[in-house]
Amino acid sequence: MIKSDIQFLKGVGPSRALKLQKLGIFTIEDLLEFFPVKYEDRRTVKNICDIREQGKHLIRVRIFEKPKYSKIKKNMSMIKAICKDDTGFITLTFFNQDFLRDKLIVGEYYYVFGTIKIAFGKSEIVNPEIEFADKDWKAMKIMPVYSLTYGLSNNEITKLMKTALETYSDKIHNILPEYIIKKYGLASRKFALKNMHFPSDNKKYTLAKRTIAFEKLLIMQLGLFNIKNNLINETNKNKINSTELSHKLLESIPYRLTNAQLKVIEEIEEDLKSHKTMNRLVQGDVGSGKTVVAVYAMLMAVNSGYQSSMMAPTEILALQHYETIKEYIDSADLDVRAAVLTGSARQKEKEEILRRLKAGEIDIIVGTHALIEDNVQFKNIGLVVTDEQHRFGVRQRARLSNKGNAPHILIMTATPIPRTLALMIYGDLDISLIDEMPPGRQNVITDIIGDRDKAKAYDFIKNQVDKGRQAYIVAPLVDESENLNLNSATEIFNELKSSFFSEYKLGLLHGKMSNPEKEEVIDKFYRGKINVLISTTVIEVGVNIPNAAVMLVLNAERFGLAQLHQLRGRVGRGKYQSYCILVNESKSRKSRDRMNILKRTNNGFIIAEEDLKIRGPGDFFGVRQHGLSKFEIQNIVNNVETVQQVQQLSKEMIRENPSLSGEDYHNLKTEIKKLFRDETIVFN
Fold it and tell me: Do residues 259 and 317 share a domain?
């Protein structure tokens, strides 16, 4: 059976099975869905004299003279073999491959594949792949290259994949119904899997890739739509249509909202007043004004006789949201009762808040995941707002929703996600976009420097601090790592405290600190008791210090562009010109090009699109884990036409056959439940 344990595949066994399991391969099916990250085209044999540029090539040569073996040092040996074809000579160099001493035979022909280096008119390949010319196993083919760790070679995986495809070919059944395969010009699953691993030409590979992408995306979309249908009661039992308090809020604000904010408010109003329960995501860049939109919606709920809640992923962010909401309420002179509930609140204080909440004496409650605990009861909750929703799973949101009678759900995120990817990830949500920044907000000036210029950056920070400003210095690790040559927050803090910033007040913040410790540091920074905060990415979300004017990121090459943009968004939140300095320690051109995107634009959505092109969707997809490989996601995302086709098909299928009844859909339903095993999937 294709779902059999991987150790029963010929050539695996218990030891190799353990290594495969570390790659997420537990069954034969898992192995077949472990797709290559790239391919090597070995269909063309090159003449040595025609190879003028360095790179990977396939050549057919014979050993010209007896290979020379030597011991370089105790743990290293070397074999050098002079080879030739009809056009020239090339040297093959092998390190620590003693077994080849007796296999490289003078006069015999071999296929050789590897990176050819050319220097001073001579060609050389170091540690190439080599095989007898008469075996013709890999040569003249398109060969897969897998992402590997844990002591497994590409050759091992390739051999196992061939064995699995040959042994279990008859056990590979279609997941998609036959009518879908025919309608959209797809291939059978057997064809697709074979040609994903060992395509004989580009045409077959393209068809296989499209088939797999279509299949995976349909599974995801149907699962998301199913979650939406089961979590959200179609009938709106919480009629929210009063806007008096919300309009007073807008009148009290000393500026006009952007057109993008007004458009999103209009969409939210339409949802709240309609016959359906709202389930909407508001996506907006850092500083685009999502909070005021959320407060507008919460005041509508309060005005209509309902309670509202806002759930944030950290205590720091929850407290900041509470303070902001209080400011809005006070400036508009509104008779609205707000409170904040966090895990670290004193027991007596917590009990009083819980009593008032249950009695309906609190209109708006702000908190962390403490809000979803069983002892939290509402009198009449009508609207649930979650911020930075990727920190909460569907089930967590559902638990909060279940505390009322199908309350409306509004989700906010400051993580810009390309539209194509957003459509795929958030199939269970309606999406609103705030893609316009408020007028007068200064762009943060961004500069990229190398490691040697760090001292100049520190001098610049000191200059800014002397002017009354504050600064962040972000390191990628908490503690010094033996394995990675990266800066750490604690290491940098200790170093700077005793050198560059010995006369300044420094603070340290990282994820291993307790919540009260974090809050104390943030509070000191907010009150100006800390000049420079050395931190990990824990400050990426939810730290709002208007006086902070400099963001210095060490080892910036280790971060995705979207994450760097989030960090940059921690400064420039006040009236002062702000700066972001990125220390790029990579020498690669690709890394420089990535950093320069941040210099060119402050638009998070443009940056997200560029990051998607360069790094792929892996970082974005961390927003919502569904068990798809980075390769699968990449190929889904990069085919917009397929995304659109599948979304349309999914809607039709759910509308016409919501339970996916019938034998044709058995395999499809099984795969949906498998992918969403941690979520609520019920086909009614």
Answer: yes
End-to-end CA distance of the chain: 30
**HSE, side-chain direction, 13 A CA sphere, residue 618:** 9
- Supply φ then ψ for residue 406, to 5 degrees: 50, 60
Q: Is residue 683 part of a domain?
A: no
pTM (2 d.p.): 0.66
Give the tens place of pLDDT for each residue, 586-601. 877 878 888 888 888 8
Instruction: Check whether residue 509 and residue 378 sit in a common domain.
Output: no
Is 110 contained in some domain? yes
Quote the strand ranges of 233-341, DSSP E.
279-284, 307-311, 338-341
Beta-sheet strands, E only, within 390-476: 408-413, 430-434, 445-449, 470-474
Burial of 256 per CB tally in 10 Å (0-12, 13-18, 19+): exposed
CA angle 378, 357, 289 (to 5 degrees): 85
What are the tens digits of pLDDT across the range 528-580?
899 999 988 777 555 678 888 999 999 888 888 878 888 888 888 778 899 99
Whose tokens are 């290293």? That residue is 76
CB-CB neighbours of 2 under 10 Å: 17
Contact 555, 583 (CB under 8 A): yes
Q: What is the Cα–Cα distance from 483 to 652, expressed in whole angstroms?
A: 51
How confident is the model over 217-233, as pLDDT tens digits?
Answer: 898 888 877 776 665 54
Pairing label, strands 548-553, 579-583? parallel
Last residue of a domain, one of 73, 106, 140: 140
> Do 404 and 378 meet the contact criterion of CB atoms below 8 Å apart?
yes
